[in-house]
Design goal:
Length: 750
């Protein structure tokens, strides 16, 4: 008699996780019967890590080619605008990135049996499986739960995976190992009643030091940096705590909450923060539902006051401090004793791999070896073989990274040559981890419903070209490139030296994939500052954009000058001029190759629309006015760069007004240029009618204009003005999209 996985795994699953899976299985059956509300079910599955992915093209770029995938479609649905039989994504939580060989083997098994055999490491140290049928998810969850892995609250309005530096515990620069604290906070908040009523997601990160980038705490809702304070001649552990950071469409730098929070206060303070967020955070307007907006609205001082009052009235919970006695249990034990380092491997590539992918541990004789995963992917066979390598060299000491790689920890230095040979045989021996050659990319249009441009296709193209380049300049080799398929920054483009995010433009009825170029982000200092966009370029021209920027840095930087310092010295105006000719979009008739995306042979086009002279003139006028709006926003960046914040504020606002007028003028030719006329007409004709609304962001970008109109100048403040400039650019991109949608609708009517 064939047994179900539920029967086979009886007694191997933690009871609470098992109950969660049983509940979801019941909800799934009720949904099939039509007795479970559609919207409620959508949030239900999200909180179990099940995400509706893009299904219209049935393709995924695997780093080499675009792979077609065929899935049937039926009449049932699994949430708004998502077909039941369409492929879905399952996100799997890996707290602080730690994964064991046994877990790796189960992950490999389920990827091969339920998906297309590829596992994707995310920028939050998770694993993702794509092309999952929702009917398979309960038993898939049970198999994961049998080895201590959950998908619970991996998506949805919940506390997402708690991340931490992948070198925690072995880094010479850390104050102390943050692993026990990250693990304890993850366990404490998972399913906690105080974390079930958020308006949006909540992200937490830990870092062992303030200078290196591994934890990226300053871009998180809650970030903790390990700190030791000396009191009465003895050491006391605690954390520098930050609140209200986040990337997304408009990034926010986290604010300092507490310079030193004692370790015993970490869990109750986090609980109090969650309670304040759940009580006062926005619920209706998802565009402003992250805690960064609540901190911004209240101010960090008021928010701190509310949290401390909440902490004062919290009922005691033994879990707040019980984990402190268990800290030694979180420590890692090397599989083998350290031995003397052997001579370099005879393989000519070994030296380069060791130089870029190997990090000496603070424990003498041991090293951590990064496994570079192109596009963050590896297949089932590779992961299964990596599990064998882990058992041979490091035991259970493996972690994922926010760079979408894996790190094998506690490798005896004498074993490094043999480890490299085996990795190379698996196709996982590429050098260049966390460097120019190691590009971070979100899934983009391959699988994400929000993707505008093919971020994975572009990343694969750039990686191939850069490896062929054989760059020798050490400063250039350390540059970081990050790509997002849209403005939401899942690829963390704001933190890169050179970042790109997808958008589109329309010419003569043809949609053209573009990437906005973002320069000068700061990865170091735990995401200390964000880059700014300098212009949108057709995606096919991006390799040349990168070539020009790298060449300029290589040839014109001063001694010991970082890329960020170089960008600040040269000025964004100079970089804009460097790429301006590449921003121009020729006609489809002369350059049809620009109208396709990387890794996708399909043309981004509605076909020959046959627009007449009248329509063409209107489009031309719109484009002319939009170009003027974009100029204003770029000049705002220059003024901001020169610390002329009042001027930058005014220019960014003018840019939004001009973009709004460009839209209004297509309906009302005689509209004046004065904001008091433009903004009400824009609101009435495009916002109130929802013509301006993005299919997913809804009216978010329109509200940027209204907020600045109603509240006036944001003030002589660098961060606030920078945020306004970001908002202005997003408003302009949304105006382009709005115009394109309206023209498409007109053609369909005719």
């Amino acid at each position: 008699m064939t047994r179900t996985w539920k029967e086979k795994l009886s007694g191997q699953i933690e009871p609470e996780l098992g109950r969660e899976i049983d509940i979801f299985e019941t909800q799934l059956e009720l949904r099939r019967r039509g007795t479970f509300d559609e919207k409620v079910f959508a949030e239900t599955r999200l909180r179990r890590g099940i995400y509706g992915q893009r299904y219209d093209n049935g393709k995924r770029h695997d780093g080499i080619r675009t792979q077609p995938l065929n899935f049937p479609s039926g009449d049932l649905t699994k949430g708004p605008e998502t077909m039941w039989d369409a492929p879905g994504m399952l996100r799997i939580k890996i707290p602080f990135g730690k994964v064991t060989p046994g877990q790796m083997e189960v992950l490999a098994d389920v990827a091969g049996e339920y998906s297309h055999g590829v596992l994707h490491v995310t920028t939050r140290q998770d694993f993702q499986l794509h092309y999952i049928h929702i009917d398979d998810t309960p038993e898939l969850m049970r198999r994961l739960a049998s080895v201590g892995i959950t998908t619970r609250e991996a998506c949805g309005n919940s506390v997402r995976n708690v991340t931490a530096c992948p070198l925690a515990g072995i880094c010479a620069g850390e104050s102390f190992d943050v692993t026990p604290y990250a693990g304890a906070l993850y366990r404490f908040l998972l399913g906690h009643p105080d974390c079930q009523d958020f308006g949006r997601k909540f992200k937490i990160a830990f870092s062992g030091c303030s200078e290196d980038a591994c934890g990226l705490v300053k871009m998180h809702d809650l970030g903790a940096i390990a700190r030791i304070r000396y009191e009465g001649g003895s050491q006391r552990r605690g954390f520098t705590l930050y609140l209200g950071g986040g990337l997304g469409a408009v990034p926010h730098q986290a604010k300092l909450y507490d310079d030193f929070l004692p370790e015993e206060e970490l869990l109750p303070t986090a609980q109090a923060i969650c309670r304040v967020f759940a009580r006062l955070g926005e619920k209706k307007n998802r565009a402003r539902a992250r805690i960064k907006f609540l901190v911004e609205n209240l101010g960090i001082d008021k928010f701190r006051e509310l949290v401390r009052e909440e902490r004062r009235i919290l009922p005691d919970d033994h879990r707040w401090t019980s984990y402190l006695d268990e800290k030694p249990a979180w420590g890692e034990t090397p599989l083998h004793e350290a031995s003397a380092t052997v001579a370099n491997d005879t393989d000519s590539d070994y030296g380069e791999w060791r130089s870029s992918n190997v990090f000496s541990q603070k424990q003498s004789g041991y090293a951590a070896a990064a496994v570079t995963l192109p596009l963050g992917d590896l297949n089932s066979y590779q992961l299964r073989e990596l599990a064998k390598l882990a058992r041979r060299f490091v035991g259970e000491n493996v972690r994922t990274t926010v760079d979408q790689n894996l790190i094998l920890r506690w490798v005896p230095e004498a074993d490094l040559p043999e480890l490299y040979r085996r990795l190379k045989a698996l196709g996982l021996g590429e050098h260049g981890a966390s460097s120019l050659l190691d590009i971070t990319s979100c899934p983009g249009t391959d699988t994400c419903k929000l993707g505008i441009a093919a971020s994975r296709g572009l990343a694969a193209e750039l990686e191939g070209r850069l490896r062929d380049l054989n760059e020798e300049d050490e400063e250039v080799k350390q540059l970081r490139i990050k790509i997002s398929g849209c403005f939401n920054s899942c690829g963390q483009h704001h933190l890169a030296d050179i970042g790109f995010f997808g958008n589109s433009r329309t010419l003569d009825g043809f949609k053209v994939p573009h990437f906005q170029v973002v320069l000068g982000g700061q990865w170091a200092g735990n995401a200390a500052s964000f880059g700014m966009p300098i212009g949108a370029v057709p995606t096919r021209n991006i390799p040349e954009v990168l070539n020009r920027i790298i060449t300029a840095f290589r040839n014109k930087r001063q001694a010991s000058e970082t890329f960020r310092a170089f960008v600040e010295r040269a000025g964004k105006k100079q970089f804009r001029e460097l790429i301006e000719d590449l921003m121009k979009l020729p006609r489809h008739a002369t350059h049809p190759e620009l109208y396709t995306d990387w890794g996708d042979v399909r043309e981004f086009s509605l076909g020959d629309l046959g627009t007449g002279e009248c329509a063409g003139e209107v489009v031309s006028q719109f484009q002319f006015l939009m170009a003027d709006a974009e100029r204003e926003v770029f000049e705002a960046q220059i003024s901001h760069e020169q610390k002329q914040y009042v001027e930058a504020d005014s220019l960014a606002y003018q840019g939004m007004v001009k973009a709004a007028r460009a839209l209004v003028k297509e309906q009302l030719q005689g509209i004046s240029e004065h904001p008091d006329r433009v903004v009400p007409e824009f609101r009435a004709r495009f916002y109130d009618t929802e013509l301006f609304f993005d299919p997913y962001a809804r009216g978010k970008f329109g509200r940027y204009l209204f907020q600045r109109q109603e509240q006036g100048p944001v003030g002589d403040n660098s961060e606030s003005v920078q945020r306004l400039i970001e908002e202005a650019q997003l408003f302009i991109d949304a105006a382009h999209s709005c115009s394109a949608r309206l023209r498409e609708q007109d053609m369909l009517k005719n």
